[in-house]
Please model this.
Amino acid sequence: MSKRILVVDDEPDILELIRLALTQEGFSVETAATAGAGLDAIAKNAPDLVVLDLMLPDMSGTEVCRTLRSNPDTAHLPVLMLTARSEETDRVVGFELGADDYVTKPFSPRELVLRIRAVLRRGEPVPSESQALKHEELLLDLDRHRCRVGEEEVELTAKEFGLLESLMRRPGRVLTREQLLDGLWGTDITVTHRTVDTHIKRLREKLGDAGKYINTVRGVGYRFTD
Model:
């Protein structure tokens, strides 16, 4: 079955360009010209990925991303930001809110397709000998993409889940910020160490007492307790 992509942009020419490019590559494409229409479409039938313009007439793309990440039903929905803004601060804000990639206008339709495929691949399950990681009361269920602390389920974004998985797979080993960035954001995406620090901070807060298992190694990175 073809992957479903929702494109949210207020420029008709851009919508048509992306729709044609993705349709030719075998994707099923739905479009929306406003943030409200996009959120309604997601609520009715969530797509496999959202291409989201940053500048929309009724709500900014960052606010849409924040709304998606705050809802457990859409917290893991892949989001690719599409915008005319190319400043590093804009990219950092987008990634800190949970965007999975960032493409600036003008863009190559071919590059957009490749980036969409890359984001979708990162969300696919990776075969593993162990499909659950456990330490004390903390359980990470890789099959179901769920996290529990004791009897309480913890809602994590895709990036937070990925960070915790990376750390729990290597207990006692220090992972640098560069390693975490490359593993979860990719080497071709420009983000800063602050992005990792922000996600780790939110992850610890969500884990509550279990957040103590994530240790900071000052000046280097992070380590899951041995």
Summary: Residues 132-224 form a domain with the Arc Repressor Mutant, subunit A fold (CATH 1.10.10.10).
